[in-house]
Amino acid sequence: MPRLMTALREWLEIRARVxxxxxxxxxxxxxxxxxxxxxxxxxxxxxxARFGGRGSSRIALRELGGDWSGLARLVGAHRVLxxxxxxxxxxxxxxxxxxxxxxxxxxxxxxxxxxVRQVQHPGEVELSVEGRSPWSGGGISGREFAxxxxxxxxxxxxxxxxxxxxARIVGSARLDEVQAEVRARTGEPFVARPMGDRIDIAAxxxxxxxxxxxxxxxxxxxxxxxxxxxxxxxxxxxGVGCLHAAASMAAYALAIQVRLGGAGIAVVFGAxxxxxxxxxRWWWSxxxxxxxxxxxxxxxxxxxxxxxxxxxGPAVTESVCVHGHGVLVESxxxxxxxxxxxxxxxxx
Length: 348
Fold this sequence. Notes:
Blueprint: H1 2-35, H2 40-51, H3 54-64, H4 68-77, H5 86-101, H6 105-112, E1 115-119, E2 124-129, H7 142-149, E3 154-160, E4 164-169, H8 175-186, E5 190-194, E6 198-202, H9 205-222, H10 227-256, H11 262-288, E7 299-304, E8 316-320, E9 326-331, E10 335-339
Antiparallel strand pairs: 1-6, 2-4, 2-5, 3-4, 7-8, 8-9, 9-10
Helix pairs in contact: 1-2, 1-3, 1-4, 5-10, 6-10, 9-10, 9-11, 10-11
């Protein structure tokens, strides 16, 4: 925050200096016109016409860095985005804003959480024909299914996974009684088994996309899991990546709360994919430029060598940590962090 306030204060000072300079020259020009015999208002208007309108002020602000692009340059010069906490805070604020704009906040929370639950089926049985497979006649026929629905020991019969049927046992009937009745009614070697517990994973399309991205990103980070400092860097990357995923899924959930048709949902899903790709690129490029010790962005990149060379004298870029923790060396073939070898360490 102090860096942002410093950049903003410097930007406002530039704008104030331009404004004061313009007012000074306007007053001097108006005074000259008043001495030549013009009235106060006419002299002021003549002076404004001489120095131009808002267009000239915008040109001056652009040349001196007092416009919005100048503010962006000052933000970069003062390294406002360099601290490790800035990106997580921005993502948390974005998630909070999406939640505040949503008419159904519970859906936003559900969109960010992958729910894994164990489903139990007390009193339910699974019915299948012994020896029957999809390659030997398919599942239960319509005649057999009608027989299942007319059984005295079963109720609520329904198809299950295409090849099987599931139903609920009536009263205190035993499993062998159910199997004997279904075989007698259908004339087929039906087998009745109790429905086992299963694990359901409730995940939407945005969650599936980010789960796949998360697996790939985790594999990238695990390649660098060496040493205590690197572990801090890896944990920071995992945390920021999770916040990126949460912000993206929250935005997707807010977008689909609007009543959209099939084409609208397809457009939103395409935007999700594009946004996820941009977020991953930003996350990885930002993470690669951070010191593994203090997590600040590296500075003062110095490039040596030639870009068109591959083996002899290739381009090598060295960046240093502002706190003197080491040097980041990047080339076509290698990327490594040399700890405590920075020339700035002694100065710091």
